[in-house]
């Protein structure tokens, strides 16, 4: 399902790839905790559909999901 959803979604911004690479470089033991492309695209879609303008995120790791919310 993950491969399908990523393959049929809009490409992730390059900043998200930078976050992944920086996390792997600086926090290699925790890099598995990044949300990932499929979840990031989903978060971005949900926030753009609601058009609420506000998001409350509790507990961020390296900011990957936060960037997805801000797209």
Outline of the structure:
With 71 residues, this protein is mainly α.
Ordered list of secondary-structure elements with their pairings:
Layout: H1 2-7, H2 14-26, H3 37-50, H4 64-70
Helix pairs in contact: 3-4
Question: What would you note in describing this structure?
Answer:
- The chain is mostly helical.
- Helices cover about 55% and strands about 0% of the residues.
- Helix 3 packs parallel to helix 4.
- The longest helix has 14 residues.
- It is globular, with a radius of gyration of 12 Å.
- The two termini are about 25 Å apart.
- The mean pLDDT is about 85.
Number of helices: 4
Radius of gyration: 12 Å
Number of strands: 0
SSE run = HHHH
The low-confidence parts are none
Based on CA inertia axes, which overall geometry fits?
globular
Major β-sheet, in short?
none
**Relative helix content:** 55-70%
Query: What share of the residues does DSSP label as strand, in percent?
Result: under 5%
State the separation between the terminal residues, measured CA to CA. 23 Å
Primary descriptors:
71 residues
């Amino acid at each position: 399902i993950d491969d399908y959803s990523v393959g049929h979604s809009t490409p992730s911004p390059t900043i998200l790839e930078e976050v992944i690479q920086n996390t792997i470089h600086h926090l290699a033991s925790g890099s598995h905790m990044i949300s990932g492309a499929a979840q990031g695209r989903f978060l971005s879609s949900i926030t753009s559909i609601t058009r609420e303008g506000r998001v409350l995120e509790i507990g961020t790791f390296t900011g990957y999901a936060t960037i997805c919310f801000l797209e």
